[in-house]
Write a structure and sequence with these properties.
mainly alpha; 7 strands; 5% strand; elongated
C-alpha cells in the first residue's frame, strides 16, 4: 500500500482526464488501485480533489462522467465546473483494500504539500500503516520524505515508520539496524511491533537486539508510570492544600470547627460558573480571560458568606468547639439547600479556557494536563500569599496576636471582634479560591464541598494545628501516599490505609507533624 503513495510522489506530471476519473470511480479493485496510484503521482490538483472525494465517499458516476457531490451541488470531477447530477448516477464504492491505498496515497500528498499540522497528521497516518502492514516497498517514500525539511514531530513519526518497514526486510543488517533504532526511540507504541517480530525472527543477533530494545522500552514505561503516579499524587496534594489552607486559618488559628468549610468551597465554584456564563453570553471574544475575573469573584463571594456567618453565629460560640461544630453543620445544610433552590440539584459544567486545555507529553506516554499544572502553580501562589499576609502585614500581626493571647491583644487596643471577622473572612475567601480551582477539573454541584471537608480536617490535624507549613507537608504527603497505594491496592483500600495511617500517627504524635511551641502551649 505504501508503494502507491511513493508512486504518487515520484511519478510524472499528468492532467486529469475523464477516462482517468472513470477508472478511479468504476471497475474492479485492481484497476482502480492502478488508477489511484497513477493519478496520485500526477501532481494535478483536480486529481487530488478526486481522490479526497473518493475517500470521503462523495463521488458519484455514470458510464461517461464522474461527479464530486458537495451538499446539494455537484461538480464535474474533470473540470471542476458545476454540473447537473443525473438520477442514474451511482456511488463510487470502497472496500478495505481501496481505503488503505487511498489513506496512504493522501497521506503522502499531504506530507509533501501541507503545513506543519497536516504534516504531523500525514506522518502519523504513514506510521500507523507501517505498523499495521510493515511493507519494505514503502521505504522509498519514507526516505524521500526524510530528505526534505519536515516538522520535528512528523520526522520522528516517519523515522519510526522507516524502522518498522526495515524490521520486515529480508536483509539481516537492515533488521538489526531497525531493532536498534526502535530501542533508541523507547516509545511504548513500538512495543507490540517488537514483540511480534521477536516471535518470528530467525537471526540470533537480531533477536538479541530486539530483546535489548524491548527491555529499554519497558524501563522507560516503568519510569513514566512512576513519574505519572508522583505527578498525580502531587496534583491531589495541591488540591488538598487549597481545600485545607482556609481551614488552617479558621480551625488552626481560630479554633473554630467549621463544618460549612466545604460549602464555602462550593460557593467559590458556583461564583466561577456564574462569571463564565457572563463572559460566554456578553464577552465571548474574551472568554479565555474569564478566570482572571472569576478568582476575585470566588474569593469575595465566599469571604462575604464567611463574614456573615462569623458576625451572626460564630462570634457567640468562641471557646465552645462542640457548639461551633453543630452550628456550622446546620449552616452547611442551609447553604446546600439554598444552592439547590437557586441553581438546581444537577451538576453544572465549568469549561477550561483554551490555554488550560491539552497537556505536555513526556517520555512518550506521560501526559501532564495543563489544568493540573496550572492548579499546582496556583496552589503555590496562594500559599506564598497567605504566608506573607500572616507574617508580614498588619492584619497578620493582629491575627497572630489575637489567636495567641486575646486579652493582652485587647489591652493593646486591638479590636478583637473585627479581627475575628477579618480572619474568618480570609479563611473563607481562600476556600472560595479552592472552589475556583476545583471547578477546572470536575463538575460543580451542591455536594462539591462534601468530598473535601473530611480530607481538609485530616490535613490540618496531621500537619499540626495552626501550622501553615505543616498543612503543606500533610497535603502533599497524603496526596502522594494515597496515589501510590491506589496504584496497587485500589482507591477504596488506599483511602482506608491513609485513614489508618493518620489514626496511628495522631496516637503517637497528637500535636501533628509540627507542634506549637511557647509559653501558652506549655501552660
Amino acid at each position: 500500500m505504501l508503494l502507491a503513495a511513493w508512486c504518487a510522489l515520484a511519478g510524472p506530471a499528468h492532467a486529469l482526464t475523464a477516462a482517468d476519473a472513470l477508472a478511479v470511480a468504476r471497475g474492479d479493485t485492481d484497476d482502480r488501485i492502478a488508477a489511484i496510484t497513477r493519478l496520485a503521482g500526477s501532481g494535478d490538483e483536480r486529481a487530488a480533489a478526486l481522490l479526497r472525494a473518493l475517500a470521503a465517499e462523495s463521488l458519484k458516476s455514470t458510464e461517461t462522467q464522474v461527479f464530486i457531490v458537495e451538499g446539494e451541488t455537484a461538480l464535474d470531477a474533470t473540470s471542476g465546473q458545476p454540473a447537473t447530477l443525473p438520477d442514474m448516477a451511482e456511488d463510487a464504492m470502497l472496500n478495505n483494500r481501496l481505503r488503505g491505498v487511498l489513506d496512504t496515497a493522501l497521506a503522502g500528498i499531504e506530507l509533501f504539500s501541507a503545513g506543519p499540522d497536516r504534516q504531523r497528521e500525514a506522518a502519523r497516518s504513514l506510521q500507523r500503516n507501517a505498523f499495521n502492514d510493515p511493507d519494505p516497498e514503502g521505504l522509498p517514500l519514507i526516505e524521500k520524505a526524510l530528505a526534505i525539511e519536515l516538522d520535528p514531530q512528523a520526522r520522528q513519526s516517519l523515522e519510526l515508520a522507516q524502522a518498522a518497514m526495515q524490521l520486515a526486510s529480508e536483509d539481516e543488517a537492515q533488521r538489526l539496524a531497525a531493532a536498534l533504532k526502535l530501542g533508541e526511540a523507547r516509545q511504548p507504541i513500538v512495543r507490540p511491533l517488537i514483540e511480534e517480530r521477536l516471535k518470528n525472527e530467525a537471526s540470533a543477533q537480531v533477536k538479541a537486539a530486539l530483546a535489548t530494545s524491548l527491555a529499554a522500552i519497558d524501563r522507560r514505561v516503568a519510569l513514566a508510570s512512576g513519574l505519572g503516579q508522583a505527578f498525580t499524587g502531587i496534583s491531589l496534594g495541591s488540591i488538598l492544600l487549597l481545600a485545607a489552607l482556609g481551614l488552617a486559618i479558621t480551625y488552626g488559628l481560630m479554633g473554630v470547627i467549621n463544618m460549612a468549610h466545604g460549602e464555602l468551597i462550593m460557593i467559590g465554584a458556583y461564583a466561577t460558573w456564574l462569571v463564565q456564563g457572563v463572559f460566554r453570553q456578553y464577552l465571548p471574544d474574551w472568554f479565555d480571560f474569564y478566570l482572571l475575573f472569576a478568582l476575585p469573584a470566588a474569593f469575595a463571594a465566599s469571604a462575604l458568606v464567611g463574614a456573615v456567618m462569623e458576625r451572626t453565629v460564630i462570634r457567640f460560640l468562641y471557646g465552645r468547639p462542640l457548639e461551633t461544630l453543630l452550628a456550622t453543620w446546620g449552616i452547611s445544610l442551609v447553604l446546600m439547600q439554598m444552592v439547590r433552590s437557586l441553581f438546581g440539584a444537577q451538576n453544572v459544567a465549568v469549561e477550561n479556557p483554551s490555554w488550560m486545555s491539552g497537556g505536555v507529553t513526556l517520555l512518550g506516554s506521560l501526559n501532564l494536563p495543563w489544568n493540573r499544572l496550572v492548579i499546582l502553580a496556583f496552589a503555590a501562589a496562594v500559599l506564598i500569599g497567605v504566608s506573607l499576609l500572616i507574617a508580614r502585614t498588619r492584619l497578620g500581626l493582629f491575627v497572630r496576636g489575637v489567636t495567641q493571647n486575646r486579652p493582652i491583644a485587647a489591652c493593646m487596643g486591638v479590636n478583637t471582634a473585627r479581627i475575628d471577622t477579618w480572619a474568618f473572612a480570609l479563611g473563607s475567601g481562600i476556600a472560595g479560591l479552592a472552589g475556583c480551582a476545583l471547578s477546572q477539573i470536575g463538575n460543580v454541584g451542591p455536594d462539591l464541598g462534601q468530598a473535601y471537608i473530611v480530607d481538609s480536617f485530616m490535613v490540618v490535624v496531621l500537619g499540626g494545628v495552626g501550622q501553615l507549613m505543616g498543612t503543606v507537608y500533610a497535603a502533599l504527603g497524603l496526596g502522594l501516599l494515597n496515589k501510590f497505594i491506589e496504584g496497587w491496592a485500589g482507591a477504596v483500600l488506599a483511602k482506608i490505609a491513609v485513614l489508618v495511617f493518620i489514626i496511628v500517627f495522631i496516637q503517637k504524635r497528637p500535636q501533628g507533624i509540627f507542634a506549637l511551641k511557647g509559653r501558652s502551649v506549655e501552660a
